[in-house]
Fold each of these.
Amino acid sequence: MQEKNNKWTLKNVVTLSVFTVIIYILLMIGMIATNILLTPVGAYFASPGISALFAGPFFIVMVNKIEKRGVTFLLSLISGLLFLFMGQLYTFLVYVMFGILTELCYLGKNSYHKLVNNFSAFFLYMLALSAGGFIPMILIREQYVEWYKTVGNAESVSAMINVYGTLHGVLITIGITLVGCVAGCLIGFSILSRHVKKARI
Amino acid sequence: MMRIQDPRITLISLLAVTVTAFIISSPVQLHLLTGLCVLYLISLSKFKSALRSAVIYVCLWLLVSILPTSVGSVTVLLFMYIRILPMLAISAALISTPPSLLMWTGARMHLSQRALLAMGVLLRFFTVIKLEMQAIFQGIRARGMFPHWYSVILHPAQSYECLVLPLILRGLKLSSDLTCAAEFRGVESRAMRTCIYPTVCSLKSILGTICFIGGCIMIYYGGYFHG
């Protein structure tokens, strides 16, 4: 019975694809808007947090509707592949790594409907956006900066070093992401119980 | 019916341009790669796509060189777009391929049907979401909710709700509709998939792809020796 429940249906696949596109587009809009409004330095700090505020409800609704093993891993994998298409190799690798971690957040019974499990998975998913920058900066700093010079221009390289090259920069980014994820998840659960469940779609 | 080029040929070219775009570093190599993509599109008789890609690329480079350094944010975004433009140019040729033809090709390559369906929805929904957003904005306007452009800033919580909630419900409804349509068309059938579009894998397109891959290799090694 349990095995049957965990089998992916056609509707699950389509829902995952549709919501992945929406979440990815919201991440992109968040990145572009913060780059324009808050300068590249501000974008590195605030982009994951602000995007989380908008993407949170979609993530919560998607996970609650699909509630199958591998949903957050596949979301991370597809998002990572889309970043890979944009030339962000390290972001792709971090997304895959964090995708596995997000799946661990859903261990246990009825975990797809619990706030804590969803919040931790969503936080890891959103953190991967900035972790794609600061994890390589910690592990392979010289190589990463050299590589980044080939894909970005001078302004983006200096902004990245200023933010992800310092401990306080990384901590502020994680803090803003955390706040954005808390707000996004709470709004998501509110929308889920007040509107989506009542609409019975 | 007009014969359509086998999508596998375009897929190989997309793979070649993606790998090359990752490993090249100098602007000259990027110029050459974009030029090569434009020539490839011309060889596929996709003149409009070729012209559009070339014009966008030249305009963006001009903008990046004209704009002062004080508008760093804008140049960062433009530079990011310029980097992926060669891949977008080739992808345009692939996206214009009918979805059923793509799925038929994928089935012939023994790819998972679920993965193919997910890919099909991903490719199609990127263009559909713009229409969905337009419909949401029209609905907001029709109800007279935000009469002025600054009304959105004055009522941020309301504007958030008006945007996010309809998009969630539309997303759910769309996934239900797409699932029904796919099931109705027999997407889960285990029988061998057929396709109404006649495909062709001509000698011209094979030679064109070989030349394209050769060009990518030359661009990479040219930059390597130059560097």
Amino acid sequence: MVKEMFKIKIADTVVEIHNIYSFVETLCKDYIYNGDDSDIIVKSTQDMIEEERLVSTEEQSNDPYLENICVYRQIALELIKRDTFVMHAATVGIGNKAYAFTAKSGTGKSTHIALWKRLLGDKVYAINGDKPIIKIIDGKAYAYGSPWCGKEFWNSNVKAELNGICFLERGEENSIEKLDISEAASKIMKQILIPKDAEGVIKTFDLVDQMLRATNLWKLKCNISMEAAQLSYKTMHGGIYED
Amino acid sequence: MKIRNGFVARDVGNRTFVVAVGELSKSFNAMITLNETGKAIWQALKTDTSIDEIVEKLLLEFEDAEKELVKRDVIAFVNKLDEANVLEK
């Protein structure tokens, strides 16, 4: 076991990571940064890994895996000071627009974006299948890829303006409607990492508020069918890129 | 009575959300959502106060409200906060 260090650039931020196990560095291979500067420094220790083991709800509990979770948590908490936060959502891009699908685990976010992929082919790309980074710049919300992206490893190192958040529910029939910002706020709270300090909470809540005001909010009831994907794509993207 | 130290309230998307921070976050991990009336009562409870004082404050803020109804709502809300162990007496 060798103490290591490497740097990545995510959401326009250079992060220096002092790790114990190589797993996290392998995971980050598409985001490696070779410059001398760094904006954030995170260090993992065996104690932190043990703490992570106590709170972890993940299926895997080996040390390298837990280290990668605790590194991302530290990065996420540091990023908040830089108008940036991590949200739990399956996020895809079309051109320079991003669409985030969020729901309780097991509702079918991944299934729905797989349907988009079948419908749209190479026109749609994964930004992050599980935990994209959201940054607020001049009142606009942008989604960024990151290496921490769920079990399908859907991610790409890109930035795209967040043009819609879709709250997904299972339904017999397919329907989509605009979602009221208050209802969206209550739902999104379950999908973000909330810091334990007052300053962090205030900053996070303000960023979430700005995101909700900057993007389109949708409620989709859907079954697993191409018709569901067609409905959400046409409504959310407005068919701007239709051939 | 008043709200215990360690809570942060902030507006997100036209609702107010409350979470515990610091030491209190270890024992209190629920999130409280407040509507407009709830927010006004919460504000009043930031400093030591009583049911009657809160009702008076609310009647100033919501002019059309009936006193008896306001009092009933305040008591119900304060009881909820008390049950959730949010208040100190």
